[in-house]
Design a protein that fits this description.
This protein is an alpha/beta fold. It has one domain: 3-Layer(aba) Sandwich (Rossmann fold), CATH 3.40.50.620. 39% of the residues lie in helices and 11% in strands. Strand 1, helix 1 (11-22) and strand 2 form a beta-alpha-beta unit.
Length: 224
């Protein structure tokens, strides 16, 4: 079995890819340089892809910064110390990002003959993005069935989100069970010039919450 995994270099995509690899899938990794304000996560994606032993790792340039609309592509300031239990969608939401990414992964999945696309989204401990919800993934899977030759010919392509209903602590625990080295990953939205995480953006705080609740130290912080 083959799967195209959207690999950001973060904790979630690394864990999701490893979980699917454990289930017997051969991995093809896709990393998108979408105009994010720093390239640390792309470097991390290279390390993670090597650790996973992927069949092929493709880095693709799709500059969403041209449109703007998100602090992750330099349009406004990245929020810090924000309430994580609020209902508002934060400025770090990149308009239609997961739809763009899944569409690109879908194209490559057709070419490789992959049966699945893997995405590390999470609907519990997350920042409130609309394209991380179960109903969105179910809808995209229907689109994949309707809009591809594979789907029309009856070869269903699945969207696998193995972390969807896990807390961040459960994700960390799963990764440790799988033997993952989280020191390879990068999660921070606004790292220091030397790569150290800021500790106050949404992503840093959610990561810290996960490690704390799992009762283990974050090797990324220990290394720093």
């Amino acid at each position: 079995m083959k799967a195209v995994v959207l690999l950001s270099g973060g904790l979630d995509s690394y864990t999701a890819a490893a979980a699917v690899r454990r289930d017997g899938y051969e991995l093809f990794a896709l990393t998108i340089r979408y105009g994010q304000v720093h390239a640390r996560e792309v470097d991390a994606a290279r390390r993670v892809a090597a650790a996973l032993g992927v069949r092929r790792h493709v880095e693709l340039d799709v500059d969403l910064a041209t449109f703007g609309g998100s602090s992750l592509v330099g349009d406004g300031d990245i929020p810090v110390a924000r309430r994580l239990d609020g209902s508002e969608i934060p400025s770090t939401y990149v308009p239609a990002r997961n739809t763009v990414f899944l569409s690109l992964a879908l194209a490559w999945a057709e070419v490789t003959g992959a049966e699945a696309i893997v995405i590390g989204v999470n609907a519990l401990d997350y920042s409130g993005y609309p394209d991380c919800r179960p109903e969105y993934l179910e809808a995209f899977e229907r689109v994949a069935a309707l809009a591809t030759r594979a789907g029309v010919e009856g070869r269903r392509l699945r969207i696998l989100a193995p972390l969807l209903h896990l807390t961040k602590a459960q994700i960390v625990a799963l990764g440790l069970e799988l033997g993952l080295d989280y020191g390879l990953t990068h999660s921070c939205y606004k790292p220091a010039p030397d790569g150290r995480p800021c500790g106050v953006c949404d992503s840093c705080r959610l990561r810290a919450k996960g490690f704390a609740e799992a009762g283990v130290d974050d090797p990324l912080l220990a290394a720093g």
